[in-house]
Write a structure and sequence with these properties.
Strand content of chain B: under 5%
Largest interface: A-B, 81 and 86 residues
Largest sheet of chain B: none
Number of domains of chain A: 1
Radius of gyration of chain B: 23 Å
Distance between the termini of chain B: 63 Å
Order of helices and strands of chain A: HHHHHH
Number of helices of chain B: 8
Shape of chain B: extended
Largest sheet of chain A: none
Order of helices and strands of chain B: HHHHHHHH
Strand content of chain A: under 5%
Oligomer: heterodimer
Structural class of chain A: mainly alpha
Radius of gyration of chain A: 22 Å
Amino acid sequence: MEALAQAAQWFIGLFQAGAATFTGLVTGIIPLVIVLMTAFNALIALVGPERIDKLGEVAGREGWAYMPLRYLVLPVVAVFFLTNPMAYTMGRFLPEKYKPAFYDAAVSFVHPPLGIFPHVNPGELFVWLGIAQGVQSRHGDAELASLAVRYLIVGLIVIFIRGVVTEQITRVMWSQRPKTA
Amino acid sequence: MQAVNKFLETIGRGAGRVVGALYQAGRDSIDQVVKNILPFMAFIAFVIGIINATGVGNALAQVLQPLAGTLVGLIIMSLIVGLPVLSPLLGPGAVMAQIIGTLLGTKFADGTLSPDVALPALFAINPQVGCDFIPVGLALGEAEPETVEVGVPAVLFSRLVTGPIAVVLGWLFSFGL
């Protein structure tokens, strides 16, 4: 009898640990995320996401001078206003040869802003939050904010590099492709 | 009188639009929380609870720790996760990145990992981002089939280069954390 009771206690203990984690997540994170998401969703609705179409048309122009627009400004604006996964529809304004690179840049930006703009990809919050929560619980809010800002800034640099590198790889692979038509 | 009416109408319309947008935004946020965030939290809480209570977490962390604790280890991690064969398999729902991230998070919380590897770690767990979604993402951008054919391997190979670069950049930007 004693052994059974102990086994039951151990069994429930497994889930009590999970329940404690769940309570922490729900009370610690959800209220802030709800308020932030409401603010940005409202902003997007008031600005009107269709306004960024023009930007897409300009970003598709030839030449290296348009690279920062194509792989930095356009993906950032697309991800902020259209969020994951609709952001990738902005690729329709670009010539075919730039589409893979734009996708690479845009999809790489769906996590770095999560610390400040959770509305861009709420379903994958924990890519950021898993590590962020650990840092916050030991080192506090100031450290968390600092990490959030740095994640965003490095994310900007990384998506630009990805856009440029993928554009070059796409160009090489396209030229080596056997002509079928 | 006409002018006053017009003025009042404009104000009323404007206020209605703003309040409507805010209310709808609130509705969307709650929807997202119920549909996406809460289910994932339940899943994470369950997995982490079990992992920690049974001690599997410690074993896993022991494996991950040498990788996560140093710059070289993190670069190796990003190379493994970014392999063109593995990355499309690890991508879906970012589940792998979220679980590894949460596991590492417990190590940041207990102080085994120092906060200056947090930023490179965020990039090291995620070089596969979107690799499962390339054909769909390109289709959303109305790409031709030919573009998809070239684009999928182009993005996958690009990640082998840019994954480690991202980790190094994260490390460079960690000073003072």
